[in-house]
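SEQUENCE-TO-STRUCTURE ENTRY
===========================

Subject: a protein chain together with a token-level encoding of how that chain folds.

Sequence line: the amino acid chain in single-letter code, read from start to end.

Question of interest: how does this chain fold, as expressed in backbone structure tokens?
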Amino acid sequence: MRAGVGNRVWGSAGLTPDAHAARQRLEALRARSRRPGEALSRGLRSGGMSPTDPQTRLPHHKLVAYQLALELVQLIAHTRIADAHLRQQARKSASSCALNTAEGAARQTLADKSRAYAIALTECCEACAAVEIAGALGACAPAHVEAVVRLGVRVKNVLSRLVR
């Protein structure tokens, strides 16, 4: 069989040409990254590393504030907002809240941490305000507004304790 023809099977493993090429690239990368005689790392042997692995945890993974900010991002992403500008603003602000929370966790000095958390706090309030305004304009269901505000208050309370 020829490579690159539709969805035909390639090789004895039953792979499509694209999957076969991806497998070859991965094997070449593994061969280059190992020194002779060195075993594969635990992450490559097990098929990948998860964020729960202590060796791969980043500073923001242990923050409750970051987990809540991610919940806010997901909630706003699933909230129907008819006004495109307010929808974009709410999503952008919620994302910025989570990103600044992660940045604050990675900063070293208390002043830098405090500044990043303060920005995250204001972005959280802005995201909630965008959804509230959409609700006031009739572009968002009152139940969605209530859910976003309830979670936003939780995020604000946690972040306000991190701002020193």
Summary: The longest helix spans residues 110-136. The chain has a mean pLDDT of 82. The two ends are 66 Å apart (CA to CA).
